[in-house]
Each structure stands twice: as structure tokens, then as C-alpha cells.
Amino acid sequence: MNLALWIVTGLLAAAYLLGGAFKVITPKEKIAASGPSARWAEDFSAGGIKTIGALEVLAAVGLVLPAVLGNAPVLVPLAALGLVLMMTGAAITRIRRHETTFMVVDLVYLALAAFVMWGRFGPESFTA
């Protein structure tokens, strides 16, 4: 179970680090024009998109660094909780925009973050 949690955590951290950095450094117009799955950006200000990106980068760091350094490992499930909340918001945005096809990916990310949160708060807690 611990190995599965680490694998999922690593994949989530990589995805959110790259996706968040992209949102932070790329202008809103380029994000919205990057494809049909990114049209959600039309609903947010440039600052809002940068904030979402910064939160994704912080969550990616929070998923890995506290556990690796052994410093405040309770931050790992809290970072996963933050991602669960963020992906819930993403799914709600998709529902409002009638983009149910793209919402499936958001729900997969939500489920993976929920798995890490459950595992690190519960059976494979770093504080146990």
C-alpha cells in the first residue's frame, strides 16, 4: 500500500508541478487557445489562473517534500485535501460549462488525490 501511495503521489506531484508552472508562466489567452479542454480559462481572470497555477505548484511540493525531508509530514495529506477541493471546483466548472467529457479527467485526478489523502491520514500515515 505504501508503494502504491508513493507512486500515485509522484505522478500527481509531477502532473500538478508541470500544469501549475504552465498556468503561472503562460498568458491567459494562450491557455484558453491551447485546446478545447482549456476553454475553462475563459471563465477566470489572468490573476485567477496564475493563482490556480501557484496553488497547484504548492500542492505538488506539499505532496512530496514534507515526507522526503521528514519535516511536518502531516502536510502531505493536507496537500492532497487541497487538491481534492481544487478538483471539485474544476468539476463544478466543467458542469457549468457543459464539458462533461473533459470532466472525466478532473474526476480521475480527484480520485487519485482522495486516495493519497485517505492513505496518508489513515493506514499509511507518516505519524503512526
Automatic annotation (TrEMBL):
Keywords: Membrane, Transmembrane, Transmembrane helix. It is a multi-pass membrane protein. This is DoxX family protein. The chain crosses the membrane at residues 6-26, 47-68, 74-93, 100-121. It is found in: Membrane. It comes from the Bacteria. It comes from Streptomyces exfoliatus (Streptomyces hydrogenans). InterPro entries: DoxX (IPR032808).
